[in-house]
Specification:
single chain, alpha+beta, Isoleucyl-tRNA Synthetase, Domain 1, 7-stranded mixed beta sheet, 4-stranded parallel beta sheet, about 20% strand, globular, RNA-binding
Length: about 850
Amino acid sequence: MDYQFTEIEKKWQQTWQERRIANARDFSDRPKYYVLSMFPYPSGVLHIGHASNYAIGDAITRLKMMEGYNVLQPMGYDSFGMPAENYAITHNSHPRITTEEHIVNMRKQFDGMGFFLDWEREISTCRPDYYHWGQYIFKKMYEKGLVYRKKSFQNWCETCKTVLANEQVEDDACWRCGAEVIQKEMDQWYFRITNYAEELLDFSHVIEWPERVMTMQKYWIGKSEGARIDFTLENSTQKIPIFTTRPDTIFGVTFMALPPEHPLVQTWLAQEPDNAELQSFCKRVMNEDKMLRSSAESLKEGVFSGRYAINPLNGAKVQIWITNYVLMDYGTGAVMAVPAHDQRDFDFAKKYDIPIKIVIQNQDKSLKLEDMTEAYTEPGIICNSGHFDDQDSEAAQGEITRWVEEKGWGVATVTYRLRDWGISRQRYWGNPIPMIHCPKCGIVPVPDEDLPVLLPDEVQVGQTTSNPLLSVPDWLNVKCPVCGEAARRETDTMDTFVDSSWYYARYADAHNRDLPFDPAKADYWLPVDQYIGGIEHACMHLLYARFIYKFMRDMGWVKGNEPFARLLTQGMVLKDGAKMSKSKGNTVDPQYIVDRFGSDTLRVYLLFASPPEKDVEWNDEALMGAFRFLSRTYRLIKGNLDAIKLGLQTSGESAELSPELKDLRFSTHHCIQRWREDSLIRMQYNTAIAAVMEHLNHCTAIKSTDDLNPAELAVYASACSIIPQLLYPYAPHMAEELWQVMGHPNLLHESGLPSYEEKYLAQDTATYVIQVNGKIRGKLEVAPDTDAGILQEMALEVENVVRALEGFEVKKVIVIPNKMVSIAAKPQR
RNA sequence: GCGAAAGUGGCGGAACUGGCAGACGCGCUGGACUUAGGAUCCAGUAGGUUCACUCCUAUAGGGGUUCGAUUCCCCUCUUUCGCACCA
């Protein structure tokens, strides 16, 4: 009678595989449902976070199968990127070898979990049959003008001759060699995601996304409306465009602020090699850790450039300062500083004794320069602004902008915080950018027929001198596809976020040799109906994927506007209050749990612990609770098998039910009702499982079936026999076993959703709670739908109520049907 | 600093549109049983008060709306997450 989970799980995993249940069929006439969990980086082992993520996906998959959908749940590997490259370096191997080894091992663990995954559609981003199409997409984007090259400053280690990601910079030094990290300006490839900024703000086409994620993306995109206005460099025709959201303050400009990265500043630096102050300030600021620089809120510094700019509106001449508080990447990279009405400009002006000019007065016009300790940033009444004086500052914004436009000094414009997506990585282990640099023809795309540009294997990974691709002459040197002369390949590889921004579409047609995917198949499967993954991808991955989807839509490859109709951001599994990590030594190995207690126990534990979007604290004791629950279920059905089988064949309409069995019948139908609501609608699996546990408790409360009459036996049998179906999404192996043991010839995924009958949910009596001034003073058991007047009388006669009303005068009685009688009373005078 | 979410027993959590706070599970206490098993079964388990019935206090803290608030509103505190001078 022991719950032999190992045998049971192996048996059903085999059966499911043989029957190819998880292999979804394209163009089936059943409605489709596409469940996708974010694919893992192949680290070699599943960790508990994966188990939790995929347990949710698998529950949804099985629920939807029971519901009759043609369900696709694919899986693959996000296998390019730095972790794989670094792993190979430290293990003195090649990332292709270690990655493929890891995949083999992870596949074993996936199989041991018994997930319904369509392995016929497996992808791995580092394989040529996948990254081929990433290159193809890159090219199509290039042709559409969505790809360009731009110089930008990167963290650069002189010793390693390589670009470093922000997280590889530790205290301004290279994480690997410890040398100083400098900011080097280099050409980088960019995707023009900002073209889609406005559309990405629109979430009206998703069905259900967490509000939190949408807010984060909106903030990330950061739309702001204002004006771009051209200031002029004094004694020059050189224009310096600025962006402002406050055109109403433009007469209050007393200086201009530029960052050291500004092209003008770069010119001056080149012109004045002997200007020590300027040179050292710029060098220092530019090489400061980017995070540090942008967080040092109090430290506003700058040097006067010795140059002046002319305010086009009033011809005023203002000093140009080079500062550390202006960002090159936002707006136009130049700020018209209005110290009176901007706190940062105010701080700066105070520090360097720059004039401050009030151009907006508060309501009682009491603002005085000498009293100001901070900038006045509120709206008010315009002053010192020529013919705009005395207008309301907010109302005047538009008018000033129109005037500026009329005069040709600038334009109304919208700026986004969102920046174009830099996809260049000076790394070996990534998708090669399919471009060729020809001395004659410039930058030329690799022709389609030459795709994919294969990543060469024969590199020395682990060399610290620059991108390993530079060390492969056979690969590097090519003929220009246009003129045939000697040329060089682009050695940058793509950010791995590029790989993951379209993989969900590849699953629709994973083996297509001619296209990224067949649009007809994509049309059948997309969008992903339910996407599941960590909240940490709220801005980057999920935004990039939406962007690429919109591009693919514009190409006519996919229909609709959004890749993911519903999004579930699942919580992390914590231990000792912290994220599990090897370095903390607080990991739990899911394989160990599966070996000792089975996949079903692990799944039930993870799903029962909390609602899916919340973090779960790992608890060994509670895991045992899940195991005991499954054991009890197993014993109940195996131990009463004869009675259940007999009962299932009994109609027993004639005989009377004891109150106990009547309750059991109610429990059965009530449980199904709750289970359906929690599993299918609310997606709150913890309470769905709790409902089954409660029902199990009702079943096991019947200690013997010997004295049951036929009707009672039928009720008992149906109460027990429903459990496998209810458990199937959460503990599929055991559920399948019990279902078979009960004599069903089919498998559970084709058993349909269990349904309840309304008539058995009706109760013989209704319990009314009686409140006096909000406090419970008694209860009444009456027939349902008893007349309110009668109830009121009955309630006022209840002993406790009478006592509570002593010295009180009843003011009002409220009757909530089948719930409560609420009496409001006031003390008697 | 800005933005978002959250705060309920010893613990994880439940209470769905305001209507019996603490479902379910863990842990704990007592008991039964034994094929000594990560057993199983029964009873109990927010705190206080009482022999008991009862009653009182409790959903971070304070106020408000309401017959009635874990739920709605305002303020404060705490925690977590995201962003970080956005002109």
